[in-house]
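Running co-folding for FE2/S2 (inorganic) cluster.
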Amino acid sequence: MREKPASCPREARLWREEFSVAAGEQGFVERRQFGKFLVLTSAAMFAGQLWLLAKNAYSKRAGGLWPRKAVALERDLAIGEAKVFAYPGPQDNCLLIRLGEERFVAYSQKCTHLSCAVVYSAQRRRLECPCHEGYFSVEDGYVIQGPPPRPLPRIELERSGGQLYARGVTVFGEEESQ
Ligand code: FES
């Protein structure tokens, strides 16, 4: 029960008016504060989800965030040859391989096991990791043998006027979203 404000000194009265909850009702305040906390937290999470959705929608409409980068001239590679290039960043080495007159493929050179650099074996038509004998199919980057847990990320290519451009990276599991 509340004390009578009239019996208190002026400062104590003011203080009680500001915080007008008796000790017995403190539990209600805590529950109310907890309720506020839940509502605010839920609102913040909801706002975060909306932001992510908006960001995703924007990047899809903008055609993704990958740069378009010239990586080689078609005539630079004979059938069965490979060339190293960097994409999307200067440290991200990739392998461009010419499989046929009209067929080029490109993959990240970083092995999905422990990141050793894979090399192309034209003789065996596969990408080989020298560290633990992990082998990848040159057709689609899938693991043929060894410890790598995932296929190699594929570099999307565009051919235009004899020039080859890198246009994006497809990581295993994201194929449907491209
Ligand atoms: S790092 Fe490539 S197989 Fe281990």
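Result summary
The mean pLDDT is 85.
The first strand starts at residue 69 and ends at 73.
Job closed.
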